[in-house]
Queue: 3 jobs
Job 1
Amino acid sequence: MTLKKSLALLILLGAGISSSEAQTKLSVLKSNKSQLEIIADGVSNHGNWTITPSARPDVFSTHAKHVMFRSDVDSIAFDVKKNGIYDFVVLDSKKDSAFTQVRWESLNPFEQPSESLLKLSPSGKLSKEQAQFDIDALVYTLNEVHPDMFSVCGMDAFMSMANKIKIELPDSVNRIGLYRYLAPLVSFIGDGHTRMLFPNNDLFTKESLRFPLQLDINTNDSTFTTKLDMFGIPKNARILTINGVDNKTMIEKMMPYASGERYFFKLMVTNYQFPALFELFYNAPDYNIKYLLGGKIYTKKLKAATYDKIHAEINRNKDAQDNKSRVANYSYSIIQGNNAAVMDFRNLEGRAAMANFADSMIADLNAKHIGNLIIDIRNNGGGDSSVGDMLFQYISKVPFYQFDKSFARISPVTQSLLSPEQYMKVGLYYNNEVAKIYPFSDKSRHYQGKVWLLISHHTFSSASSFSWAFQHCNMGKVIGEESGGMSVSFGDILIYQLPVSGLKSFISYKRFWLPGSDEKDIHGTIPDFKVPADKALDYTLELINK
């Protein structure tokens, strides 16, 4: 053994690695030159790494998920995990050995709080310092991930709101208390995809008592009505007050917790979050309810009920049973008397399933000479836009596309949150190259009749882009309400978990422009025939009959 090799072995031993481990476990990278090329997440540093045998060890710190060292004759690669350390030896042409180490390093100063910060009190509450750390971590992550978080709210207003929250925090706060501070802050951004997730398990258990009715908030006039006949109050009763509080007062208190671009969409989000937000603000052992039905005002007192009692009441209700049967993402039925078929399109999921479904549906409608297909996406909140592309191939008369351009901001923090399926190896991209998709040329696979589309304020995300492309490419007429998704919008969410409290947030990391959209006039899909969503189907059938 040469003196240089002996020194290299001493370096290994000095680093805490035994000679047997060095000989049997450490991989060796051979090189004839003094420099190596490092390729981190597909990006090369063009040979800037110099082999240094005297280091103990020679450390390459990185936040990349995949790292390759490449010499003129050899290469070695590592899949880098969080907190991972990966050792190997570089052996040059002179037989000099360099103990080298790849070490994961976070570029996010809030990713790894100290042990003292992570230690919660016996009651599970966070100290003011812990809560402030989570707020700083959230603001930092939003700023690193979101493509343009201040485009609506303004940086000064947002940061003032965040600083005010940090000052007003009590000495200790539980997770729900922290949510009450943070949800309005995130909603202030004005992006329907970016929002705090309610910590349901902190508030609800099967034994906890809660408000017993199922209510629906009208997104046009903010009124509350009962969804089902429950506990002696009939379906479609208009709720006037609950324990003396009217609907407008409740809406005003809940709206700051709803993320969205339009007031009507924020109402829809409030409707979705109503059970949790009501418990947060108005929980009581019993409820005095004043309601309007058939022009008369009634009052009734109900006790708070458990989850099991409420769901037993729901399950005995025929309307609820009917809704249970409608579980498919998409289905259709033929209305013979109106020479029409209605496709209930509730979710953009399952590209292969959509291909099979659309093949079968279109073949059936063409064979039966059904002259009108009504596609109902009033209750569709989005999903995979390529599922919509698949359906378009069966109904569009012209080549189509759903997005003019898109922009994604991929910072190191974004990369740390991306799943393997989402992971992208570029820093920034701006795409305005639109590849049009062509409809099926085979007439047997293409619908021969007229197509109508029903939309509502609930039509959001990929469902909204579907409605926009449908109208933009003149596939048919659109009936209902303006969609909840906008012509220029943020989307494609990542989930971020706050480091101390564990509260979670959705954060958009892309921005989309729909065909023909104008940043100075952002809006949803505007129907050709504007009618309340619950009347859209009947209105369409009247148009068909005429």
Job 2
Amino acid sequence: MTEVPAFFNLYRHNFARLAVAVPPVRVADPAVNARETIALMQEADARHALVTLFPELGLSGYACDDLFHQQALLEACLKALSDIVAASRQLSTTAIVGLPLVIDGLLFNCGAVVHRGRLLGIVPKNYLPNYREFYEGRQFAEASCLHRDSIDLIGQTAIPCSPDLLFRIEGQPLFTFHIEICEDLWVPIPPSSFAALAGATVLLNLSASNVTVGKADYRRLLASAQSARCLAAYAYSAAGIGESTTDLAWDGHGMIYENGNALAETERFADKAQLICADIDLDRLVEERMRQTTFGDSVRLHRDTTARFRTVDVPAALPTGIHLPLARRYERFPYVPADPARRGERCREIYDIQVQGLVTRMRAAKTKALVIGISGGLDSTLALLVCVRAVDRLQLPRSAIIACILPGFGTGERTLGQARRLVAAFGCRTNEIDIRPSCMQMLQDLGHPFARGEAVHDITFENVQAGERTSHLFRIANMHGGLVVGTGDLSELALGWCTYGVGDHMSHYGVNASVPKTLIQYLIRWTADESGLDAPAAAVLRDVLETDISPELIPPGEDGTIQLTEAAVGPYELQDFNLYYLLRFGYRPSKVAFLAWTAWRDRTRGPWPDLPDEKRHEYGIADIKRWLAVFLRRFFEQQQFKRTCLPNGPKVGSGGSLSPRGDYRAPSDASANAWLTDLDTVPDSEDGERA
């Protein structure tokens, strides 16, 4: 059997699996609690988790109250910790467990970091709640009471002991974690804020937060917001079943967030032990910090505070030599709203952004007319919908939209019919002009073989048609004092699939300039299904969606085959995926390929739930690599010059735009070699064999 390559391993691509454990607890019985903890450590290790987080005071139980001042309990906790340390010798995961510790005659609420038979650090709690149902100030001392930076414990010496410790995984230096305990997150400035500025990318919270009505939502808000502000991952493990219900209740709420996004959450009020895992994208966190320059400003402003942090190395070995796919779900369509409950809201917002941009431009230009070329395809259909909403908002008649239908040599009957139906359905003014005579005149002037009756359909033949359409649109706009509305989209701009200076490259205002093809498809589908259109309008929108994507510049072949855009530049569903992760996050191509393989390897998921089987596509690693190479050459090396002179248009999403005045500035004469060299590390098949 061919050995599976390390390429198909999440750790190879700067992901790291993080586990949150919620064991059942027996109050004041550390021996039982240690056995439950060890069992979950073993499970986390079997699932290849790099770090496993446990709840606050998990070895004793949180609800011990004044029993914390009993020597028998404190000594039993030390014995439990010793058992856990011994058990960790056979495990790769690093565990963070909670227990009470006496240091210099004071009792501290601590988190202990355990790895491979060693205690790597002890972190005491900073903020002790002493209000409402909490009485921690009665039993424990704050971390600020600690007057040493290391302790000796269970036969080990000089163990770092401080709330200002960072733990860095030696095999993965991007994974540096910090520990805070429960209330530390609830204060105005959590200690993890400074830890993040000091370099921590993963923030861990051992908690014993009891449950009250509505509290779970507030915990989620805190963890989400802290991970977003700190551009970090945030993991939270709270006490669950077994804690004393004398006066309180416990729900065992564990969760993992990454930069504001929820990745995993436990079942609350479970009657058994729980272990959740999430694969943290360390590259994403590091890239976001690099891009967000105000994060660096904060590092500078708080350098005196962050200077007190010490770093402890964790000698963890990563399981890189095995087949280990991501457990994390990646959507095939990152530009498309993933949450069904919010899709309608998101679609309305996208339209609002486009419409507001166009309305503002019309007011500034003091015009009451819009000129748009309608092909019967996706892009011009969405642009027409935006124009309709814009004139409606300005309380202008739909006849203010001069919809130009400009058939050429490659125009098909289907798209021509759809163009006519679209204009009629939305009540726009129609201006249909056959551009073939003017194109033929130019071809004759050029001495082109087609003008002599030869079937030569070269780039000149194509661009003459694109140029004639643009010329007609601008001259019509001159006649009516209107604006030419651009229809070109983000995907075409990324691939350079537009004719420079003419065609859909140029307009007075490009409403689709930051909307990719897959999102355009979804917006049209949502408009047809949910926006309350009449039957003819909805029907023509659905027909547009079912039409093959083509520039229609070359006549059909003798067998009826037509010019297909995706045959030249690749499937838009793949190229939009590539664009998102290269533009938004700056990932290396090999990682983008791994993410695409992750997204498309689930054979049960199609691109759209209502598409027939023949419309559902699957891509293996060879297809992904092939089309990513096309993308890299066109995006980085060949087509940037077209993006340096784009017309104005509104930025729609955080996925970015390609405007040189907005998100993206790049040289027009760069080389793609660095990206292509990295892409060469991607195998040509899943068994790792090279073609």
Job 3
Amino acid sequence: MLNTYAPAQPASDTPAPGLSRRSFLTASLAAGGGLLLAVSLPRFVGEALAADGPFAPDAFIRIATDGTVTLVMPQVEMGQGIYTALPMLIAEELEIDLAGVRLEHAPPDGKLYTNPAIGFQVTGGSTSIRGFYEPLRKAGASARTMLVAAAAQMWGVDPASCDAAKGVVLHPASGRRATYGSLAEKAAAIPVPKEVALKPVDKFTLIGTPAKRLDVAGKVDGTATYGIDVKLPGLKVATVAACPVFGGKLKSVDDTEARAVKGVRQIVKIDDAVAVVADHMGAAKKGLAALKIEWDEGPNATLSTEEIVKQMAALATSGPAVDDKKVGDVAAAEAAAARTVKATYQMPFLAHATMEPLNCTVHVRPDSCEVWVGSQVLGRAQATAAEVTGLPAEKVTVHNHLLGGGFGRRLEVDSVTQAVKIAKQVDGPVKVVWTREEDIQHDIYRPYYYDQFAAGLDAQGKVTSFRHRVVGSSIVARWLPQAFANGLDFDAVDGAAGPYAFPNLHVDYVRHILPEGFVTGWWRGVGITHNAFIVEGFVDELAVESKADPVAFRRGLLANDARARGVLDLAAEKAGWGTTLPARTGRGIAVLFGFGTYMAQVADVEIGKDGAVKVRRIVCSVDCGVVVNPDTVKAQVQGGIVYGLSAALYGQITLKDGRVEQSNFDNYQALRIEEMPEIEVHIVDSREAPGGMGEPSTAGVAPAVVNAIFAATGQRLRQLPIDPDRLKGA
């Protein structure tokens, strides 16, 4: 058995200080035979959490004596393709076939499975490839080196005279060969190399080639298991109703009629919700509908979107601001400007609407607790179960599953907390499933943003100053308080100046504190999804004010960024920028840098006389550094565009009388099949370090579409979702 892992990290969300940046390796004989290889590697410094100290990334590889290679996945699969891409990293350096890699979900263990890009066990922020690109390759290369050394020692030859291919060590001169499985135990006695050479990019045979997804077969034939698929002996199913007003509590329940429903077994009350436990979901839903519930709605019973926006507008002019970036002298540049352009942009609250509604199966026993769930933060799921039950963490077992969509919603554990509270009152295992209505009306939403801009232009139309104030609630203050330094939410201002080099720049942040019980969270990228829209919209305004072509104007602001100019020019070229379009059709562009990736999108958009918006075509160019699986990159672009376009056209969560007005896909609409635009993806051949691909395309589509709408109609939209009424007759 071959395991690769790094030195222990603390089982918390706080990165460990003081670890050496020096790489080291240790090896020993694993129980049951085989090689145990420990690999410690320098930390990959994340964009948001850059620090001096390193993190030790952890991942486990096992090579059994029968030659089976198992990768215990340190990250979770939610459609982004890492159950193929991460094994490709191992297979490339270990010299094995990708199809020969078996996968297992990693358990919650912050000591072994820390994400080196963030500092604890988490899947998010488009960090899976960025964080594990070098550690997993080095683990594979080290293991291969040791296996070759074991074979050379056995044969009495120089290791340099041996090769490795397809899970076999070869000695070409004598024709001898030995499988990895047969060498695993011998390799355990080989000194671990202090340094190991990784393949140069031009020697890759697997990385950079299109690889079929390893998880597709199970998803097609139904053998893939999501959290909602869990089946256990004696399993009951529950569904819930939580207080419709944030921060409200359960006051009373008349469950007489519900108990009469066939299949209903139990009514469970907790502080802010009630659950119906039944033999199956149909009975649980019918029982829930039969309940007569009275709520204590609390202080938020009259809360509305209008009230929240009014608060944010006041903060934008008078709120305490925290500086993010200051370059040059903005005030002096503004005073000397030939003209000043100002604008206010707004972005709505957004739900996640994952295809798999939230669910969690729990079995609480007197001395233990088991949880079956799909989560992006297994350690936090384990911790909340331990807290609710009063058990030590080691008595809580969490079984992770494939996620039917994460998008940041499964970075939260509120549904796990609720499920454990319910399960404490149920004898045996219970699967708690939220209905779609519960899912949308009790989501943890992307924040509302209210941003103000001011830019100075000289007589030639060149930008001399750029001022951006971001106003919004802080996710970081709640979710990662140790990173909420000096009141600045690093994510809220991510991309707040775009990829541009303004000579005089001032970006600051004003925190809006929402009422108690109303919580905002991550949403397939947050800061960049709002900042890309508003910055690219405002830059487009500046181009118009300067009477400049939008592409040429942006190119002038990117004089010192070759990669950003590269994707800008590539997208414009492939989209046919400057060519004639049909009547009532416009073409818009947007460029961004986020998650280590450069991207540009061009949208061709047609506007009907009734104001209806039809996105005909999206051309996307992407420079994400070294590409592991180009098929996955294209799929991520396509999926991100669908998600982002859905939000641009339809997405908003609104409040009235303290309640979320949207409830299902009829009024929280997703893009329909017939609305799908043609999408072209062009990938830049790059040797730079890998960037993330889970979120950038979601952020880039809205500004490209809105800028195209302006090109077609002359109507500048500074608020999403797109309002067709604004475009009627335009």
